[in-house]
What we know:
This protein is α/β, with parallel strands linked by helices. The chain is built from ten helices and eleven strands. It has helices at about 5-30, 45-60, 75-85, 105-110, 125-130, 140-150, 170-180, 195-200, 245-250, 265-280, and strands at about 5, 35-40, 65-70, 95, 160-165, 185-190, 205, 225-230, 230-235, 240, 255. Strands 1-11-8-7-5-6 form a six-stranded parallel beta sheet. A three-stranded parallel beta sheet has the order 3-2-4, with helices on both faces. Strands 9-10 form a two-stranded antiparallel ribbon. Helix 6 (about 140-150) crosses helix 7 (about 170-180). The longest helix is centred in the first third of the chain and has 23 residues, at about 5-30. It starts with a strand and ends with a helix. The structure holds guanine (GUN). The site of guanine has 7 residues, from strand 4. This is Bifunctional protein FolD. GO terms for molecular function: methenyltetrahydrofolate cyclohydrolase activity; methylenetetrahydrofolate dehydrogenase (NADP+) activity.
Amino acid sequence: MADLIDGKKISQDIKDEVRDKVTWLKEKKNIEVSLAVILVGNDPASTVYVNNKKKACEYTGIKSVSYELPEETTEEELLSLIDKLNEDKTINGILVQLPLPKHINEDSVIKRISPDKDVDGFHPESVGRLSIGERGFVSCTPAGVIQLLKRSHVEISGAECIVVGRSNIVGKPMAMLLIRENGTVTVCHSKTKDLREVTKRADILVVAIGKPEFIDASYVKEGAVVIDVGIHRKEDKKLCGDVLFNSVSKVASQITPVPGGVGPMTIAMLMNNCYEAAEMQNG
Ligand code: GUN
């Protein structure tokens, strides 16, 4: 049976470390770390995510400044709020919760956020910096996966790393980060011809395909480390990932559960990005 990679515990450790660093900045340099959180409309899932982000800010001592805008907000209004926050020296990070209402162009919004305050790591400049190995903000979920691996003592250097999924938020930055850690990286996606044949090679298998319980033991090499980025609610209301846990945990050496694996890491890494934003802007 595989060992569990405990994302709840590891994310708690990271939040505690961020809290210490935030306290240090405040006490030694009189700098208060702050995050502007923008939510447009009232999508229930987004509201839950935003509330969790605000709670994590409270825990770590980061000041959150919340903008809850009506569904009818125009793109121009949102862009001018971002302009104002870009200029505001008391704001270190800017987060616009996605998805946005259909009449607002997400790419234009993401590009308007100053790369210095882009704590989500979605701006093309942040993406470009990651791909050429320059310092910059990294998308929180894949950054969290790297922390899960490192803190579970998984050797990435030289490992055969297979990423299933090629999204801008997870798959692509995940591949870049694994390359940075000297992994041998392959990215698979919906057009991959023989997915099972590829995933079977993985020493480290990261699954972000958005299909509930799609990956069973037949896709996994004995002893592989399996990271499940998916989260879905089943008909019986229970949560599950992209990986069929009871099957894969019989062959993997280490595996993340859902819930309690990758999920809590995203917010912990966001908190760390906020701290780093403040440190950089004041450095
Ligand atoms: N919506 C779903 N995930 C995310 C995320 O990581 N950041 C933002 N801003 N919106 C999201």
